[in-house]
C-alpha cells in the first residue's frame, strides 16, 4: 500500500515536471533577468566571468546564506560525531597507507593546492571561483588524510587550525560586506572600482570575496571529511543491542 | 533564435527527460528504499537531477558560456543565474550528504543496523523504555487506554497477593513479542 502510494506520488511528480518542461519553450529561457544581467554586468561589476559577478555581486547575500548553511552542516556533523572521536583515541591504529600512496599524496598535495588557489583567485576571469576552488583545496587536504590514516595523520592539520581558517574566512566575508555598508550604504556591494577588465586585479572586491568563500568552503569540507575519516570502524564496537543484525537488510 | 530547428528541439527534449528521470528515480529510491544508506544515495541522485533541470532552464541552443572575452561580442550567452544557483547547491549538497552519512554512522554504532524496519522496532522499544511504559500492542498493554482494575478487597488475601505479583509491568523487553 505504501509502495503504491509512493509510486503514484512520484508518477505525479514526473508528470508535473514534464508538463512544466514542455511549456518552457526549449532553448528560450523564460527569465528576463538573465538577459538584463548579461547586458549590464560587464559595466556594473567589471568581472569577465558573469557567473561570479552574479554570485558575489548581485547575489552576495544569498552566497552568505549558503555559506551559513554549509557552516550549519559542518557544525552538526561535528556535534553528531564528537563521541566517535573520543572513542577513536583508544582504538586500534588503522593500517598504514604504504609507500606509493604516501609519495603520490605528497606529490599531489602541492599541485592540488596551486590549482585550487588559481581557480579561486581567477574566479572573476575564468570559469571557477570560490566554491569550485574551495572544493579542490579540501580535496588536497583529504588526499593527505587518506594516505596517512590513523592518529598521527589528519594530514598534519588539526581541527583547531581548520576552525580558525574557517572562522577567519567567514568573518572576512562579512567584514567586506560591512565595509561596503559603511561606505556607501549597500551590504556586500562590490567596492574599490572596476579596474581594467580581464586583469587579475580587477572587479573591485570580487577576488577578495572569492578568496574568502574559497577558504571557507575548503576548510568546511576538509573538516567534514576529516571527521568522517577519523571515525573508527563501527563493526568492532559493542552495541547496545546484543545481536547486531546484518548490515544489508534492504529490499 | 532562428537556429532553433528540430534537432535542437529533440536534443533539448532528451536532456529534459534525462534530468526529470534522474529526479524521479531519486524520489522513488528515497521513498521505497528500506536501507538508510540507499536513501542517501537516492538523495544524491535526485539532487543531481534537480541540478541538471535547473541548469537546463538557462540553456539555449546556440549560446556560449557567460564568460566575456572568449568569444566575439554579440554571441548569445546562456542564462547565468541558474548556473549560480546550481553552483552553490552542489557544494551544499556535499555538506548535507556528509551530515546524513554521519548520522548514519551514529545510528549504525548504536543499533548495529541500517534497515528501516528493524530500526523502527528498536526505536519503539527504546522510546517505550525511556518513557517507562509498556510497548503498545503487546500482550500486557493492548492499544488504547484501559481503566485500572478495581482494588481487590483485602478480604480475599490469596487473590490480592496474586494480583500484586502480576501487576508490575516495568520490564518492556520481555513484552516485545
Structural overview:
The complex is a heterodimer of chains A (251) and B (177). Chain A contains 8 helices and no strands. By secondary structure, chain A is mainly alpha-helical. Chain A has one domain (31-232). The radius of gyration of chain A is 23 Å and the shape is globular. Chain B has 5 helices and no strands. The model of chain B is unreliable at 168-177 (pLDDT under 50). Classes of the chains: A mainly alpha (251), B mainly alpha (177). At the A-B interface, α1, α2, α3, α4 and α6 of A face α1, α2, α3 and α4 of B.
Summarize the structure.
The complex is a heterodimer of chains A (251) and B (177). With 251 residues, chain A is an all-alpha fold.
Topology (SSEs and partners):
The complex is a heterodimer of chains A (251) and B (177).
Chain A: H1 2-23, H2 33-44, H3 50-58, H4 60-89, H5 99-121, H6 130-147, H7 159-184, H8 206-229
Helix pairs in contact in A: 3-4, 4-8, 5-6, 6-8, 7-8
Chain B: H1 6-32, H2 36-57, H3 80-111, H4 116-131, H5 157-166
Which parts of chain A are unreliable, with pLDDT below 50 for 5 consecutive residues or more?
235-251
Biggest sheet architecture of chain B: none
- Relative helix content of chain B: 55-70%
Radius of gyration of chain B, Cα only, in angstroms?
A: 30 Å
Count of separate DSSP helical elements of chain A: 8
DSSP strand (E) fraction of chain B?
under 5%
Shape of chain B: rod-shaped
Q: State the helicity of chain A in percent bands.
A: 55-70%
Q: How does the helix and strand content of chain A classify structurally? A: mainly alpha
- What percent strand of chain A? under 5%
Largest interface: A-B, 76 and 64 residues
Structure summary, number of beta strands of chain A: 0
